[in-house]
Amino acid sequence: MILLAITFAGPYLPFVDRELSKITYILNEDKRPVIPPYPPSEDYIFGTDKSGRDLLSLIILGAKETIMLVACITVLRYALAIPLSFLAHKKWMGTHLFLKWLNGMLSYIPTLIIVMLFSMLPPFLLTEHRPIFLLLIISLAEMPRAAEMVKLEFDQISSKEYIYGGIAAGASPYRLFRTYYLPFLFSKLLVYMVTDLGKVMFLLGQLGFVGIFISQGLVQSMGGDWQLVNNSISWPMMLMKAFEDIRGPIWIPFFPAFAMTCAILTFNIFAQGLKTFFTKKVRYI
Amino acid sequence: MLHSILKSAAVFLLILVGFVLILLLPREQKITVFSAFHVEADYPFSFELYKKRIRDFTNYILTEKGLGDARSGRTVREESAIFVLRSIKIILPAFMVSMLLGTLMGALQFYRRKKFTGKLQNFLSWLFSSIPDFFLFIAIQYLLILLMQQGLPHFKLYGHENWYSFLLPLLSLSVFPFLHMSRFTSAALENEMGEEYVRTTYAKGLGDLKALLHMLWNCWSPILNQAQLVMLYILSSLPIIEKLAGYNGAGKELLFSITSNDEIKALSLMLPFLFIMFITIILSQIAKFWLMPKGRP
């Protein structure tokens, strides 16, 4: 709830600097100009970044974009995983073998490396729709794992008696899916998806450290080569310079990472709550 | 058993080939110079180019009889070995800590599950397993920096030169797998609670501790299955943590070689990682064969 409140109502709080005004310098006690970043103090609770923007405001304003991205990736992932898992469950044209192979591959190579390798490919690097492609890559990268989990659920449910009952009663495949599988699958899926929100956030954070983000533009620099430029204020972006910042103004990576931790914690609490809610519901029927 | 090991080896080879194919996808920049003021950069991407790159790569491997020389004059293999050895110093202890101590901790948690301390431990391990490792690392460093300002003796937080520099990455890297193992073990033990043999143990007059030992022995299969997952987790977090710590290991170099499109180096650093995964899988299979009671699925 707090996370949602910050995400949607946060930008209208009085202390949030909505313009994200940049400060070039402030004068210290000796009337000497001091350039940002400033450490956490009374004026700036979380400190400021290198161009003098208040980190607290930055995090609150970036929350909406970040949460939206995470939600989009998760929904996309499951939108792809559910049909695939159903086909794999039906063993349609060797889908189950394909899924098994993909999962074997993913259990050897870290997701981070795969996303890095694919996101730097020229066709995805040069298009105008890079954010969409990156969304796709990130959601596809962990999709087989999700599909495998859903497939196991399908396998488990279809061994139950009432499914045979449905088949014997002459239910069409669609009806079978809609009224026999879905009500039982729904609660599990919801729990999986909320848990996945946390994992996606973690992956986005890791990608932030390597400098790969969803909203990036490609700009030709003076030297003639192309450079990736960020035009977003989402949390992972603030981690990009972490390797330099960690040796000096360590609060710049600290607070966005802290915000991510809070978000992951919230998702996990939510998932846990949903789980207990659903198990209770089933038990008392 | 030999059958399953051979199967794993075949899967490993397939995955290796798949990885090399992904790595070789054309991603290089082509710069055409027309005149001093007219330079065009382009990223060509076509199937012919891909085929050519694969051919070049196999030729390179065949002519160099290995991975060839690095820019420093040494062979790539020697150079990678330095980095990999540095990383092994983190990977192995992290794996050991999470597998052995994690399992022990899980058994302990199960043993105390009804007491207050057990419940507290359950809550804490749940809370800490939600914290991403990179945040943990940054938080520890921030705390240490603040403490040093307050008068803690100064020591170096970054780099790989000091004997203690692997401790901080190791700590932040092993927290999540450790907690995962402990939670998993305790859940696996709870599943065994209703089995007949536990009742038999008590009927024979053996105490709680002996019963726990019996149950643990029956849990080896799911616990050992987690070995692969734990290793994968450690390996996927390693690059980021190494980079944050300025620890010059294989993970950090791997990130660098991928971003700078150095396929040979990326391959030479990724190979040991894949191999470590493979060994983990094989070892866990062998351990399962030795430890598991016969006749259980």
Give an overview in words:
- The complex is a heterodimer of chains A (285) and B (297).
- Chain A has helices at residues 2-9, 55-89, 95-106, 111-119, 122-126, 130-141, 143-158, 161-168, 173-210, 235-238, 242-245, 251-284; strands at 26-27, 33-34, 216-220, 226-230.
- Chain A has 285 residues and is mostly helical.
- Chain A has one domain (62-284): Orthogonal Bundle (MetI-like fold), CATH 1.10.3720.10.
- Chain A has a two-stranded antiparallel ribbon with strand order 1-2.
- In chain A, strand 3 (216-220) and strand 4 form a beta hairpin.
- In chain A, helix 2 (55-89) crosses helix 6.
- In chain A, 34% of the residues are buried.
- Chain B is mainly α and 297 residues long.
- Chain B is 73% helix and 4% strand.
- Chain B contains 11 helices and 2 strands.
- Chain B has helices at residues 2-23, 47-64, 76-111, 116-129, 133-150, 167-192, 196-203, 208-218, 220-245, 250-259, 263-291, and strands at residues 30-35, 38-42.
- Chain B has a two-stranded antiparallel sheet with strand order 1-2.
- In chain B, helix 9 (220-245) crosses helix 10.
- The chains are: A mainly alpha (285), B mainly alpha (297).
